[in-house]
Amino acid sequence: MGNDGGSIPTRRELVKEAARNPNTTELKETRQEQQEWNWRNCPLSHRPLVRPIVSDCAGRLFNKDAILEALLSTDDVAKAADAEAVLGARVKSLKDVVEIRFTVEEDSSLTIAGETAKREEKWVCPITSKQLGPNVKSVYIVPCGHAFAEGAVREVAENTCLQCSEPYSTDHIIPILPVSPDDFGRLRTRMKSLREQGLTHSLKKASGSGKKRKKNDEAPATAIVPGSGEAAANGAEVAPKASTNPSTKSVSSTTGIKNASTASLTAKVLQDESERKKRQKLGMNDNLKSLFMAGGDKDRASKGGDFMSRGYTIPAHAKR
């Protein structure tokens, strides 16, 4: 086909544009598009970012329920492989992430015809009022998690959070979605130093890092009723009040989660996971089950096998 007129085309006439490396402008555009996507979507669940939002030691943003689902659904091999590809070895527990406390602009709802329609949240810096996103270099502070524009934190000489006045070190100022090689190198150096100290990204002790104390060395703690005058006067420690939510209480007892909000979110993730497994089991209906035999080779030999393995047999009345 073709060339019937006797013409012989050259390669440059057939190939419109030769393969080449992208230039600086194209690289910047691609990076900008990737940053915009990462500021709006969770790379683990591929769903839009919705508070509560957490970040790992590399400054990436995730939905907290997606992290919990990845940590709890270890029996699903495909999900575990996808989570390992995204998280790597950075997140092994909730201690390896910090919840980001974004300042949401007050005008985040729109009233149309007497009804309030929710718009997309706008995260701003509480000091400069700049919108945090791919166009503004943003940071958050460990361990409180408050987010600011980098310029506001850099100009303030005090090493206390501008929102909650919690002290912090300059090493614990984490850039959100960094792109600079210097930022990546600083974050790697920080995590190496924390691992040597037996700490995680949230500055909590890593699991198994401390020595286990013997039970005989510790005296049994006595429960003190809240509101006791003698306990308050002596500065004794008051036992926390137990949660009244039965689902939260059961999850807290099984997983050891003390935070009520995290425990309730974990309960929701576990419930969604169980419902998903039930739907998968119900998806195998009777018509699909009839295609397969549970007895194996014995039933297949006795009944002639299923349609996938028995092959084609000629009926007796059709034989000549």
List its salient traits:
320 residues, alpha+beta, extended
Task: Note down, in words, how this protein is organized.
With 320 residues, the chain is an alpha+beta fold. It contains eleven helices and ten strands. It has a three-stranded antiparallel beta sheet with strand order 2-1-3. The protein is extended. The two termini are 50 Å apart. The relative contact order is 0.08. About 12% of the residues have low confidence.
Give the SSE map.
Elements: H1 11-14, H2 24-40, E1 53-55, E2 61-63, H3 64-72, H4 77-87, E3 98-100, E4 103-104, E5 109-112, E6 115-118, E7 123-124, E8 138-141, E9 147-149, H5 150-155, E10 173-175, H6 181-196, H7 229-234, H8 246-255, H9 260-283, H10 286-289, H11 297-302
Antiparallel strand pairs: 1-2, 1-3, 4-7, 5-6, 8-9, 8-10
Helix pairs in contact: 3-9, 8-9
